[in-house]
């Protein structure tokens, strides 16, 4: 069903409005700084408004079907089309991405990190926004690839220009890792293009993700499927990031400017997990079953390794970065079970991690701005010197360790639980072992997060900052943070807001996997 | 005497020859103007050359609209869609290079009029190359395009490096020609034919390749491998590129390489169609060229040398589809043509930025790009787009070129093709590492020597930049534009 009238334009608008804003900003001279910033914020808010319109127009009764579909010619010569659409899986992620960017703009309104130049900073954030939004609604693999890659350069520059001491190393590492992944990813996409066959055995030769989901890898022999999946696995796994491809993440996060870290955590990492759920598993269910034990293994290694890494960190931002590795491990564990329970938990975990870790990075950034250090041993007594920020930090750490009633719980707990009963064709013993290990991971998470909070927030401020009057949360910070805080509580007490959305899509994916396994 | 008088002129298709004749006329006019007005003509010369080149596009258009394939001299000279696409490309490259040359050549106080005449002559050779379907016409075209280029490389006649560049290029070029001629003689001896179609049908008669035919084919291919600076026949390129005047370097890296590729396309897909030695030879050469070009580029500190090695590596990418020429001929050929077109614009763009920046900094070192973003954000963004295109990052044009390679490889399928695909993937990553060094200089570093004077962009150089930029972005966002030409070229070459 193709959308008509204005509905045919909404997704395109949501994706390209920020880019239009960026292009306008480019031609406005730097001297008009306020105007430039207003244009940037305006365009991202306009995109968000479109997102809210989508929220109201979305047909929740059929959340498993693509809505607002547009299917127009693009690169006829390679049979790639401009196909966009939105279902219950894309909607929460698109909204998250639409929401985060204007908040980041507000946050950095007067606080563009050294060396300044808000115009360029805002433009890059807006280009980034177009890439992220586009990735979540593309229904054509080449279109997806292009959006997926558009994200790279702006993030590279955000880290490289506005980052910390080691920014050049970190930005290059980030870029090279991701580029290698996407090169393998495109090879896999092409293999899917050439090898996929429809039910009648005719070659499909299409990049249309809807058709490839229907084909579900038919006509590709299992060994080839496994190889193609390997390419996708590396492509998406680097982005997630999964152990052992995670090493770029702590560097990138530590060196990135605050909003760079926030966007990286809140949205960019999700592109990887989204790719697994949207592309890798439905397109190649047989290979997914073959790979699932390994994905699960790497996921639990990630959980434990991330947690141990956290315990060893002296720098607060680096600690949060390692906690990302652990949290994304839970998401990947949920995905690896190939059950609708696990996949639902994974999508929830993606949103929850986006909000919570995004919030943590915001607080870390604000602390760094005030104290000019994030060394945990030099901080202390935050609750005394900046009580509001101290409480927000406490709130975010509680959410992060999975306190029931806050969003983090619903991503973590069901993911662990789903491993008790993995999907068809997977070994129960193995996944139950994973479950136990993951459960230990939550204990460790509670450990490192509480320890972090204890060291930074409790007690008296350290001597060097004792006499400083340090400003508490500012107006712009409130504006940027309140939506995050509301989201964390809202989804915590009312998780069905997301589960109801995703369940339809997710169950059709797992049903497909089961059908393929049963038919083997 | 009798025999001489008995010569009857073979029928000429004047319309088919119109592009070459127009170019010849323009070159002649340039020479005449130079002789008559001498010094006074200097001001108009670039304009005259540029307008003249654009005039050549007219007969190319009329031929394209006419659409019939035209063959002359028993099929030695053919004007088909492939030839027309390539001729148009050469002319547009030539036009952009004229724009890039204007100020460089004028400021340097070099011979001006002769420069343009020589460049047009070289372009004439390239137009001929696009139509040549016979060993002899290929050779004549090759020499016609090379000899002026040897002189252009040494154009900064006062500079030792430029002289070195010209001499090296000349010696290596002549050596390559000799190797090639020897190969051609072997092929002719074996098949009794110089025309590509004749060679193809004769070679196809043998069930397995004879040692002699392998030697002949290899020698001819190696001759052209020199021309497109494929490893291990690339040694001349970095020195020549660095020493030659920068616009000439752009000319060699883009136009001259494209001409070599055009010849290779005809040889591989028509003359030596499915010859046993083709696929392994190109697999090896492509993998070596990409990898070694990229690895050496990593260590360069001079921007022109860096672009030279990057150009070698890019040439390696272009050679990749030849490695599956037999299994997926259609997609392979299309991939090469598309790559050539996109490469031309992104590389010309990169060289234009280098020219613009070095006009201010008077340096070719990588550091001279330090802090470019702070005092010339427009140029820095343009360079970023060109480098992103060269690295193959969407939405800048180069991604579609790389995509074409992968498509050809996977269409062919099999372990060898897949392995080469992985080599390409790894090389894409290595390549970005050195493009990132330029990006890093422009964006992350403080301003070079604290010199914040803005870069003055002359109108000619600015136009060259804009053309390259628009083309690069357009090919990236709407790849159908360039893909169409690729398809047209494929259809005519493979004779569908």
Which whole number gives the mean pLDDT of chain B?
88
Low-confidence stretches of chain A: none
Average pLDDT taken over every residue of chain A: 90
Largest interface: A-B, 32 and 38 residues
Indicate the radius of gyration of chain A in whole angstroms: 22 Å
DSSP helix count of chain B? 20
The number of helical elements of chain A comes to 21
Q: Please state the structural category of chain A.
A: mainly alpha
Count all strands of chain A and give the number: 2
- Major sheet of chain A, described briefly? 2 strands, antiparallel
What report would you give on this structure?
The complex is a heterodimer of chains A (520) and B (496). Chain A is mainly alpha-helical and 520 residues long. Helices cover 73% and strands 3% of the residues of chain A. Chain A contains 21 helices and two strands. Chain A has helices spanning 7-27, 33-57, 90-107, 118-137, 141-150, 152-162, 167-195, 209-215, 222-239, 248-255, 258-283, 285-312, 316-336, 340-371, 382-385, 387-400, 407-418, 428-457, 463-466, 475-493, 496-518; strands at 67-75, 80-86. A two-stranded antiparallel sheet of chain A has the order 1-2. The longest helix of chain A has 32 residues, at 340-371. Chain A starts with 6 loop residues before the first helix and ends with a helix. The model of chain A has no long low-confidence stretch (mean pLDDT 90). Chain B has 496 residues and is mainly alpha-helical. Chain B has a two-stranded antiparallel sheet. In chain B, a hairpin with a 4-residue loop joins strand 1 and strand 2. Classes of the chains: A mainly alpha (520), B mainly alpha (496). The A-B interface holds A 74-78, 120, 142, 145-146, 149-150, 152-153, 156-157, 160-161, 167-168, 172, 175-176, 179-180, 183-184, 186-187, 190-191, 193-194 and B 373, 377, 384, 388, 391, 393-395, 399-400, 403, 406-407, 410-411, 413, 418, 421-422, 424-426, 428-429, 432-433, 436, 439-440, 443-444, 478-480, 483-484, 486-487.
